[in-house]
Amino acid sequence: MGRDAGDEGGSAVTPSAEFPPLRPEEVDRLGRIGQRWRGPRPSDGLPVDPTLDRYRGRPAAGRSGRLTPIEMFAVAPPEPAVAPPEQGGAPAGELIAGEPANLPRSRPVRALTRLRRAVVGPPLRSSAVLYERMRKLVALPVLSSDLLSSVAYGPEAMLSVLVLAGGGALGLSLPLAAALVVLMIAVGISYRQTIPAYPHGAGSYLVASDNLGAGAGLTAAAGLMLDYVLTVAVSVAAGVHAVTSALPGLAPFTVPLGVLVIVVLLAGNLRGVRTAGNIFVLPTYAFVVAVLALLVAGWLRAAGRGFAPVAPPPVPAAEGLGLLLVLRAFASGAVSMTGIEAVSNAVPAFRPVEWRNARTTLGWMVTMLVVLFAGLTGLIHLDGLVPRPEETMLSQLGRLTFPTGPWYALIQAATALILLLAANTAFNDFPRLLYFMARDGHAPRRFLHMGDRLAFSNGLLALSVAATTVFVVFGGHTASLIPLYAVGVFLAFTLSQAGMVVHWRRRPGPGSRRRLGLNALGATLSGLVLLTAATAKFAEGAWLIVVAVPLLVLLFHRIHRHYATLHRALELRPPPVGPAPAGPAEGEELPQQVRHLVVVPVARLNRASLRALAYAASLGQPTLAVHIAPEEAEADRFREQWRAWGSHVRLETIVSPYRAVIGPLAHYLEALHAVGPELTLTVIVPEVVLRRRWHRPLHSRAEQRLRAALRPLPQVVVTSVPVHLVG
């Protein structure tokens, strides 16, 4: 079933997604556990004021003029000075961390943080997520850059296949283009229906998961993820090719230029949705104006000669004209539709009313795509142009239409910009897709996190790394990447539209049959293109996508299995009936279920070890000190020192004749747990904290090694008692 407009929790994007609410049955269990809790009450007196209000105004600013930690936190004023909590405000009296509290304490890391903020901008408050939205005139260029830029290489990709059968086969470009226009309109109308049905996000993953099941949704997600990575790689490769067509001297630097463009796109998108949108508005509109000017001038030239087509130059046939070649050409031309789903994936990024603005924007995009694609294909046919490896067809058309004046340079500059920035559509949608997958437990939960500028920084970094890898591996060659392109995106198209067919069958009503028919048409046509692309381009590289999709789905299932196991381990369980027995291993939920044994490893008696012993004794629990000695003589000497101290804590010495310390201690603690499995061993480790990094190689750092050795042991809590080295 589709998610209703009021279903904010269904697919709404919120910074709180990292902290999912408890289910009703878990809240009930929590209340029952709380009724049996035996421990200090929250109302019991604390030695400090947790609101810090009592200490404001003192002491003075800290070292290096920085604010003291007290001043980094503010108390929310009483109503109505703050917005209601549901609008991003805080209840009166609640502490609010100020911006300085986000800075790390380490000077080098703090310097890197300030450098990052200089690049991406200062952090935004969580409540600003409501304002990080786009109006239609900004969303159109941001979300259509991929779709509209594909007309710069889509017709050429189709003709590059047809020309293999000789110049005479180029005449098939017109009927193939007409079929592609029908496909564009059908898929566009289908997605226009999908948007209001899923007003909080109509991506293929959500629609397929909701109606066809998790497997179909994950398959659509795998196809989309591959499509987004290839969108960045192909767009950047095509943009660099446009630059090198105009400036051949830059051809040897294709790969470094492409990597630089991806880095610039990453930096721009890390600044947030709204800022990135404002950056990328002008290039898209400039490209549309430039291509429209080219079409007007070119068609006027063709009208002057009565629309008589110019005969193309003779091209020898490299292979015979057959059905398979025509299907390959059709599938290659279909890459002009990549990006048509971008608006449906990004519905939450629009200003209210989100779904209505998204649907209007999609209508504009499809109209512009049909006009530009059909106009360019027809004009290329009338001018008798053929693909050439050293120059793009759009560049040839620009030179022919504007042999003098600045228009050719302007067209190439606009084309290069739109192709380079077309990847921005993927930068908008890829992190959002990972967000929804992570929310459902099919992707790492780190992709739920919003960065300083309310952008999904981890998703942006993942896309940049993957796209850079693909771009470098294929050497930035557009022709090598195109065969990989259509399979993933049309797989997502097909599953999304098939999911909408099921959606309308489940929700009959006025107009549902018409909508079902339109989505069925879109699913059928998309499925045919998918089969065509997968079979006709299988040997050219499409097999990589065919293999990668099931491997990604398998990976998603394994991730979900891990999170399901984690959830079962951490979910609240009903409390025991009657007196609280000792809890199972790492299963205690009540204070009275926990039985303690405090263990303090002591290497030598000094200020650090005595402080750890004092801390252990202050807990009021059974305490044991352990000393590892390399030989008997040292063990006797340590016992004498212990008696001189007063033997205030039980001591156990262990002789390690092979001089190992960490191994014997870890196995001894494991043995203690074996004889007392109901015990929680709290290991209190004295630790010297060094101020300078270069001091670290001067110490054995046994505390870190001990912590790593004890981490796999159940029922063992490791606590450090630090002593900070001054100077």
UniProtKB/TrEMBL annotation:
<feature type="transmembrane region" description="Helical">
    <location>
        <begin position="454"/>
        <end position="476"/>
    </location>
</feature>
<feature type="transmembrane region" description="Helical">
    <location>
        <begin position="279"/>
        <end position="300"/>
    </location>
</feature>
<feature type="transmembrane region" description="Helical">
    <location>
        <begin position="407"/>
        <end position="427"/>
    </location>
</feature>
<keyword id="KW-0472">Membrane</keyword>
<protein>
    <submittedName>
        <fullName>Amino acid transporter</fullName>
    </submittedName>
</protein>
<feature type="transmembrane region" description="Helical">
    <location>
        <begin position="161"/>
        <end position="191"/>
    </location>
</feature>
<feature type="transmembrane region" description="Helical">
    <location>
        <begin position="212"/>
        <end position="240"/>
    </location>
</feature>
<dbReference type="InterPro" id="IPR002293">
    <property type="entry name" value="AA/rel_permease1"/>
</dbReference>
<feature type="transmembrane region" description="Helical">
    <location>
        <begin position="361"/>
        <end position="382"/>
    </location>
</feature>
<dbReference type="InterPro" id="IPR053153">
    <property type="entry name" value="APC_K+_Transporter"/>
</dbReference>
<feature type="transmembrane region" description="Helical">
    <location>
        <begin position="246"/>
        <end position="267"/>
    </location>
</feature>
<feature type="transmembrane region" description="Helical">
    <location>
        <begin position="482"/>
        <end position="504"/>
    </location>
</feature>
<dbReference type="GO" id="GO:0022857">
    <property type="term" value="F:transmembrane transporter activity"/>
</dbReference>
<keyword id="KW-0812">Transmembrane</keyword>
<feature type="region of interest" description="Disordered">
    <location>
        <begin position="1"/>
        <end position="68"/>
    </location>
</feature>
<feature type="transmembrane region" description="Helical">
    <location>
        <begin position="516"/>
        <end position="536"/>
    </location>
</feature>
<dbReference type="GO" id="GO:0016020">
    <property type="term" value="C:membrane"/>
</dbReference>
<feature type="transmembrane region" description="Helical">
    <location>
        <begin position="542"/>
        <end position="559"/>
    </location>
</feature>
<dbReference type="Pfam" id="PF13520">
    <property type="entry name" value="AA_permease_2"/>
</dbReference>
<feature type="transmembrane region" description="Helical">
    <location>
        <begin position="320"/>
        <end position="340"/>
    </location>
</feature>
<keyword id="KW-1133">Transmembrane helix</keyword>
